[in-house]
Amino acid sequence: MNEKPAPTSDPLSGLVPPGPPPELRSRVLAASRAALFAAPRRPDRWSLLWASRPLRLAWAACVLLLLAGHALLVGPGRPKHEATARPPSRSEREAETELAAIARLPRLDPDARSFGPGPGEPLAPAIPPGDEPQKENRT
Which of 128, 126, 97, 100 is nearest to 114 (CA)? Predict the structure, then answer.
């Protein structure tokens, strides 16, 4: 009963992220100074490949060779073949029909029939009418 309520000036003050540690600035400056005056690193392979003029010329020659081969194989004199799909076989058509029948919702389908007796025959009532006495089943 003697507890003082917490001040309600800012209810989200506990969600403020903490500030950076005080020694972070000095550590970052020291690391950058060390990296600036350190010996240069050996370049990676991609930098070496990019800097190599013979390798760039070989790459350009390969690209030109591939383009020329494509132009010769698929030239303007060759007939263009349209991509045609072969007609589905009978088994594929039957499978599609079966899948369409399975996917149909029986409650929403106006042609759906019940799983009970054949068409035209009434279903047996699940609950006997109230005016008939119930029969006892003793075994």
Answer: 126
C-alpha 58/C-alpha 64 separation (Å) is: 10
Q: What is the pLDDT of residue 116?
A: 59
Interatomic CA distance for residues 81 and 120, integer angstroms: 57
What's the start-to-end Cα distance of the chain, in Å?
72
User: Between the CA of residue 38 and those of 31, 33, 52, what are the distances in Å?
Assistant: 10, 8, 26
Question: Would the pTM of this model clear 0.85, i.e. be above it?
Answer: no
Angstrom distance (rounded) from CA 68 to CA 75: 10
Identity of residue 60: A
Give per-residue pLDDT as tens, 104-119.
Answer: 665 655 565 666 555 5
- Which residue type, as a one-letter code, is found at position 65? L
Rounded Cα distance, 98 and 92, in Å: 10
